[in-house]
Amino acid sequence: MKVLNVEVVLNREKNIQQAESEQDILKKLDDETEGYAILSHRWGVEVTYEEMIGFMTMEERKRDEVRNRYGYQKIIKSCEQAKEDGYKWLWIDTCCIDKRSSAELSEAINAMYRWYQNAQVCYAYLNDVDKAVFPTERDDSKFDQSNGWTLQELIAPKQVKFFNKDWVPIGNKQHLAPVLTDITEIPRNVLTGGLAGKRLSVAQIMSWAAERKTERVEDRAYSLMGLFGVNMPMLYGEGKNTFQRLQLEIIRISGDHSIFAWGMALWHPRMSCMAEVAWVCTQPTTSYVHCQQYGYSSVPARHSLARLPISF
């Protein structure tokens, strides 16, 4: 992984160093052996990898435009927080991945869950929370539980610190676990201890993502790979077929029949009737919205691969 050199970024912003090369701003880091911080955030007008490494060679007008962006200020504030916490390195998805390289993008997406898991701390920046307290109600505009990518960013890291739009700390994952469980329906022991050692069903994990969305339909599947421990090549443009590939990869490594919960009538306490959960492969994750109660392999085996309405 490539990470930002926190000190160099901050020094460059202060004009102490007039020019920096890519090697100075970004460094290749072994996420298994070196400590780093990582950012979870909602995208806005961001700074790209090529803009970050070519910052000092830009025309002054262009450089000023970049510095005034919401995304640039987020980079600076993240670096300041990392420095305050004693971290030399920081990873941000917007500017640490060269998305011009399909190979680098594919590697990053496949490794992203591990990168969040191995980070010493994750800064969760809530850009539309203006109060100095964490929002306590299910409100998509105040807590980004609707974004597909932020699911793994909430579960994987050992430590998550939440900040409001002014970068005022408003809590951490351990202390806020009961509130987060109410909002996201992710079990408290998963939030505080991760997925390791938990016998969770495929349907349960899918249910956490059921109401989340991504800008690109393929990312509905790619954002779940780390949660299920699978890897896939990136094929943007294939649409909902990506979710079919994800299911097949899960089936290959798991004997959990709850993946076949589609098409079954399931009871959910919020509903006054039985809900038909169907079309898993044509409606990615949404078909699992009421599957929180399904344990590992609790779905009858008669819902077998042969019954899936898909063509792999």
Mind explaining what this structure looks like?
This protein has 312 residues and is an alpha/beta fold. 36% of the residues lie in helices and 12% in strands. The strands form 2 sheets. Strands 2-1-4-3-5-6-7 form a 7-stranded mixed β-sheet, sandwiched between helices. It has a two-stranded antiparallel ribbon with strand order 8-9. α7 links the parallel β5 and β6. The chain is globular.
The portion of residues assigned to helices is 25-40%
Structural class: alpha/beta
Number of beta strands: 9
| Uncertain parts | 265-282, 298-312
Strand content: 5-15%
Rg over C-alpha atoms, rounded to the nearest angstrom:
21 Å
How many separate helices? 13
Q: Tell me the span between the first and last alpha carbons.
A: 32 Å
The strand order across the widest sheet is 2-1-4-3-5-6-7
Instruction: Give the CA-based shape.
Output: globular
SSE order: EHHEEHHHEHEHEEHHHHHHEE
What does the main sheet amount to?
Answer: 7 strands, mixed
Brief digest:
The protein has 312 residues and is an alpha/beta fold.
Summarize the SSE layout with pairings:
Blueprint: E1 2-5, H1 6-13, H2 22-25, E2 26-28, E3 37-41, H3 49-53, H4 60-67, H5 70-84, E4 89-91, H6 102-118, E5 121-125, H7 149-155, E6 160-163, E7 169-172, H8 173-184, H9 188-193, H10 202-209, H11 219-222, H12 225-228, H13 241-253, E8 264-267, E9 274-277
Parallel strand pairs: 3-4, 3-5, 5-6
Antiparallel strand pairs: 1-2, 1-4, 6-7, 8-9
Helix pairs in contact: 1-5
